[in-house]
Amino acid sequence: MDQATHLRKLVESESKSIYKLKRDGTVGSNPGANEPKVIAVSSGKGGVGKTNAVVNLAIACQRMGKRVLIFDADLGLANIDIIFGLNPKYNIENIISGEKDLSQVIVHGPEGVDVIPASSGVQELTQLTEGQKINLLNEFDMLNCMYDVLLIDTGAGVSSNVIYFNLAAEERMVVATPEPTSVTDAYALIKILFFQYGVKNFHLLLNMVKDENEAKSVYGNFSKVVARFMGGISIEYAGFIPHDTLLRDSVARRKPVMCAYPEAASSDSFKVVAGYLMNRQNNRRNDGNIKFFWKRLMAGAINVDNRIGN
Ligand SMILES: Nc1ncnc2c1ncn2[C@@H]1O[C@H](COP(=O)(O)OP(=O)(O)O)[C@@H](O)[C@H]1O
Ligand SMILES: [Mg+2]
Question: Is the shortest distance between the CB of 251 and ligand 1 below 6 Å?
């Protein structure tokens, strides 16, 4: 047995006993609870409202009694911290290097929502040594008993980063606006995930719409085209967020609209979408939790890089 295999076995048995402790209720605040849901939020095109969707859905879920962690994985335009008015000191790079542990890196946002800040270090996930991966997985295993939901702001487009976060997550929500370019780019993202990676389940959130009719009509056309060219795919309607000047205003105030203007039309819609995401009955994968998410992320990353030639 080489050193890496030995170490892995050691850590596996160790984390099983930690996990058992948590399940027994000795550690963690919610013993026996369901595994956390891991949801990746992405879009074909930037500027369609992903980050606002993530922060406001996080607040809405937290108000429903869920414990929410956001992972800011948008390496191009990371701005969860901006909308939350946070100034994070550390990021995931400090965990990889072993300087800090997760508890020192996670920052606390409004209403108890926690955030793992972004960094270009996420790309280093593809180049970790076996020992670093084990350390990281062990750290992330702890999160399973601390949170009910992990929301990931993946960024836009079809870069390897966006693809591998989508592959690793249990569920995927694509955000689009009724603008033709946004819809076309959402289609391109889904097409790659379907044809190249066999991903079949998506939720579509329509943002900046006039009203629900517009959202339903865009969704109707979109799902028809997708069904015609991608057999066996499921695109579920996750709901809509109206175009709302109060949301724009809240961004300028570095606050989620749910906090700045709880009575705003967009705040109401975020509540409905959060209810949809939390209450829908789906067949949960038994490997849907946070640790498996990270495991898949680290295992799949190199593969994805090769396949899409990045
Ligand atoms: N529902 C909405 N109504 C009005 N403006 C919106 C709405 N959603 C987003 N915006 C505007 O679009 C900008 C970009 O949103 P953001 O969430 O940062 O997009 P992304 O993360 O997809 O790049 C916001 O700063 C805000 O001004
Ligand atoms: Mg963003």
Answer: yes
Quick check: CB of 244 below 6 Å from ligand 1?
Answer: yes
Pocket lining: 243 vs ligand 1, CB cutoff 6 Å: yes
**48 located within any domain:** yes
pLDDT tens for 225-258 read 999 999 999 999 999 999 999 999 999 999 999 9
- Contact between 67 and 148 under an 8 Å Cβ cutoff? The reply is yes
Digit-coded pLDDT (tens) for 146-181: 999 999 999 888 877 788 789 888 899 999 999 999
CATH number of the domain bearing residue 250: 3.40.50.300
Q: Report which of 215, 205, 201, 207 is spatially closest to residue 172, judged by C-alpha positions.
A: 201
Bridge partners of residue 176, in order along the sequence: 206
pTM: 0.85
